[in-house]
Model the fold of this input.
Amino acid sequence: MSELAIRTLTGVVMIAVALLASAVGGTIFAVAVAAVATAMYYEWTRIVRDWGLSWKIGGFFYALAPALSLLWVRERDVHGLELLLWVFLVTWSTDIGAYFAGRTFGRAKLAPSISPNKTWAGLCGGVVAAAIVGGAWALMTGLGTLLLMLAPIFAVAAQAGDLFESWMKRRAGVKDSGHWLPGHGGVLDRLDGLVPVAVLTAIAQLLGLT
Done:
């Protein structure tokens, strides 16, 4: 099986699990989020094991903040599920758009000293994909037109989160944060973009913007 096929199959399974847990909500969703946050922190501590205590403490909040944000978004009001799915769709479409745009049109490197595979074409592809998919979902579900503007902005934040994790791995001298997910690496490798999107969405909701 090709690497792309393995990556796609694993991605489909992860998406299915995330959607099922999100739809059920309540305790099931909370347990799933807690399990993922624990895995994130475990991988973080392995990466920064020689970097000092402050990095381990920072990793705790790095894993905790998106976990609390996702729980807040899901259970805040009757539109929680729709907004949570918007968070996922923006993150996923950013990743997918960046991957295929980068492979197809990628020439100029975005940050070669941090992540040699990231390109400006990938960045633009991710932003466009998130704007289209996130915007369409916001309009379909009546979440509000403000999310049309937030989708591309949060897509940039998602890719910044990806670059941050790439910088950590490069500094630590590791290729992947873990080996849990065939074709993807570790949990941090898949959720580095979700972290800022989840936190920013929760902040926007707290401020009454969504």
